[in-house]
Design goal:
By secondary structure, the protein is mainly alpha-helical. The chain folds into two domains: about 120 residues; about 140 residues. About 65% of the residues lie in helices and about 5% in strands. It has a two-stranded antiparallel sheet with strand order 1-2. A hairpin with a 3-residue loop joins strand 1 and strand 2. Helix 3 crosses helix 4. The longest helix has about 40 residues. It is elongated and about 75 Å long.
Length: about 280
């Protein structure tokens, strides 16, 4: 589950729209009005003739709205924007009671399918922290799919992560961290103006940092991977304070992933935050 509306759009009829239509304050032409509000989200725009026919025929409006499939929409962001606008439409049609019913139905839908949004009044769908991180990883995977080398390194990293479910030894954790650094290094190498091939040197050439301290933080993490025995190199055994553990893998994976937007210039952070 991606945590977005598009994969579960087919479930919205039974969980949101049909119950909303049964509310005492719902007018018969509600779906005709909602459909007209939804048309900017379509990949192929509805013709004026079609919109006029749906506006004049509430039964056709309901049937057309019910039959809409996820593949006709421009993307997740367009659906979210419609859902937010729909609150205003519902409020105009049925007042506070109908608008509140709509709010509660969408809120329950978010919870049922564990979607990546937090719903706030009057009606704003905001990405959650877990949703932003999931969006970042999804966008990273989209970037790596466009390049065979990146894709190979992404697969290596994901496989090393999966391997930890059966063997979470220090050796396996070191391999996992190494694979993630390899991926970041490759992404950084591909950034404009970068000629270096090690993450530390790449950091000095990437021009995306808002402050030197962020750059220094990534370089410090890279130095850790070089200094800690068995991650990047033989390392310096005397610098290791203890054996590496699963909590180190969780921390490093999350922290390194968080720095990806600075190193992968193809990654669209706006899509990671708001959806496609």
């Amino acid at each position: 589950m991606r945590g977005e509306f598009l994969p579960v759009w087919s479930e919205t009829w039974g969980d949101i729209w049909s119950p909303l239509a049964k509310h005492a304050g719902a007018p018969k032409d509600m779906f005709s009005e909602l459909y007209r509000e939804f048309t900017p989200a379509f990949i192929v725009a509805s013709s004026p003739e079609s919109l006029a026919e749906i506006a004049a025929n509430p039964d056709k409006g309901r049937a057309t709205f019910q039959q809409m499939k996820a593949d006709i929409f421009q993307g997740e962001r367009a659906v979210v924007e419609f859902l937010e606008r729909a609150h205003g439409v519902v409020d105009d049609l049925g007042g506070d009671a109908l608008a509140n019913r709509y709010f509660l139905l969408v809120e329950a839908f978010l919870s049922k399918f564990s979607l990546r949004y937090d719903l706030r009044r009057p009606f704003a769908l905001n990405p959650t922290l877990s949703g932003v991180f999931a969006g970042l990883i999804r966008e990273l995977k989209a970037v790596t799919l466009r390049d065979p080398h990146f894709h190979s390194l992404m697969v290596d990293f994901e496989e090393s992560l999966r391997d930890l479910s059966t063997d979470s030894s220090s050796r396996r954790i070191r391999i996992c961290i190494q694979k993630q650094v390899n991926l970041l290094e490759a992404l950084g190498q591909n950034s404009p103006g970068v000629a270096a091939n090690t993450l530390g040197a790449i950091c000095d050439q990437v021009g995306s940092w808002p402050h030197d301290k962020i750059k220094e933080a990534v370089k410090a993490l890279y130095k850790f991977t070089c200094s800690y025995p068995g991650i990047r190199h033989g390392g310096t055994p005397a610098t290791a304070l203890r054996d590496i553990e699963i909590k180190d893998m969780v921390a490093m994976t999350v922290v390194l992933a968080g720095f990806t937007p600075y190193l992968a210039h193809q990654l669209d952070s706006d899509i990671a935050y708001r959806g496609q």
